[in-house]
């Protein structure tokens, strides 16, 4: 069974101008997949990820996650499904500003479990931050950290929840070559462990790590 399935998904925005960045996208994501979506800036890649991640509702079409039709769920049900199944690395770090690096991870775990993180989860969180080079910064608040450090915390926060589907919107942005490579290795490890990774990138070298490459343009998704 597919982990995530999109059928004829359309998204329209009605502002000053009518925009239709996603215009009939059908795709499937299997456990263990590593797939990338490329395409020109402003073409709708983030819009597609947000719908896949249950953060934005499509104008029409169906999105199934773990066999559940996300478009038929109310907001509370969608939040529960999302926090159980999806880790999201946003284009901006989107950390909670009043919480330290470690607390941002623990908060994500609390949302996942609906209860305080265990001692073991706390140790795993510290180890994850260490893996991402933040061992000595785990008690710092986001504003006390560099842009690249904040991005690595956001990546750690998505990884720590052990989600079946990891959605990453340009995860290597703001990272130097060493950390970009390390983050790609961590994402690849996730897919090798049976998680699915869907990543937007503008970098050909990182896109080439994917098992399946897609290109979004004019609302249409095609395999590369
Ligand atoms: N809330 C909104 N209201 C109106 N239009 C929107 C809204 N959000 C996005 N758009 C429009 O939808 C289009 C796609 O935006 P999106 O952020 O998905 O692009 P993207 O491919 O991720 O771009 P980039 O590579 O620059 O991050 C853009 O033209 C944008 O202006």
From TrEMBL:
* Stretch forming the signal peptide: none
Q: Does the keyword Transcription regulation apply?
A: no
Please provide the record's keywords in A-Z order. ATP-binding, Nucleotide-binding, Transport
Domain ABC transporter, residue spans: 4-224
Q: Which InterPro entries match?
A: AAA+_ATPase, ABC_transporter-like_ATP-bd, ABC_transporter-like_CS, ABC_transpr_LolD-like, MacB-like_ATP-bd, P-loop_NTPase
Q: Name one Pfam family in it.
A: ABC_tran
Give the GO molecular function terms: ATP binding; ATP hydrolysis activity; transmembrane transporter activity
Q: Name one GO cellular component term.
A: plasma membrane
Superkingdom classification of source: Bacteria
Name listed for the protein in its UniProt record: ABC transporter related protein
State the organism named in the record: Desulfurispirillum indicum (strain ATCC BAA-1389 / DSM 22839 / S5)
């Amino acid at each position: 069974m597919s982990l995530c399935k999109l059928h004829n998904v359309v998204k329209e925005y009605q502002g000053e101008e009518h925009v239709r960045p996603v215009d009939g996208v059908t795709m499937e994501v299997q456990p263990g997949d590593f797939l990338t979506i490329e395409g020109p800036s402003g073409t709708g890649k983030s819009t597609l990820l947000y719908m896949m991640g249950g953060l934005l509702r499509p104008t029409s079409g169906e999105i199934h996650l773990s066999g559940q039709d996300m478009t038929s769920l109310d907001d509370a049900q969608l939040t529960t499904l999302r926090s159980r199944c999806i880790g999201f690395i946003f284009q901006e770090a989107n950390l909670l500003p009043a919480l330290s690096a470690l607390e941002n991870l623990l908060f994500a775990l609390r949302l996942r479990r609906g209860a305080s993180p265990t001692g073991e989860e706390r140790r795993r969180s510290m180890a994850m931050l260490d893996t991402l080079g933040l061992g000595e910064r785990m008690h710092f608040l986001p504003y006390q950290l560099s842009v690249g450090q904040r991005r690595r915390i956001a990546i750690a926060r998505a990884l720590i929840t052990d989600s079946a589907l990891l959605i990453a919107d340009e995860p290597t942005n703001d990272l130097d070559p060493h950390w970009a490579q390390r983050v790609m290795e961590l994402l690849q490890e996730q897919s090798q462990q049976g998680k699915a990774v869907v990543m937007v990138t503008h970098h050909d070298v990182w896109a080439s790590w994917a098992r399946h490459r897609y290109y979004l343009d004019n609302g249409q998704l095609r395999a590369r």
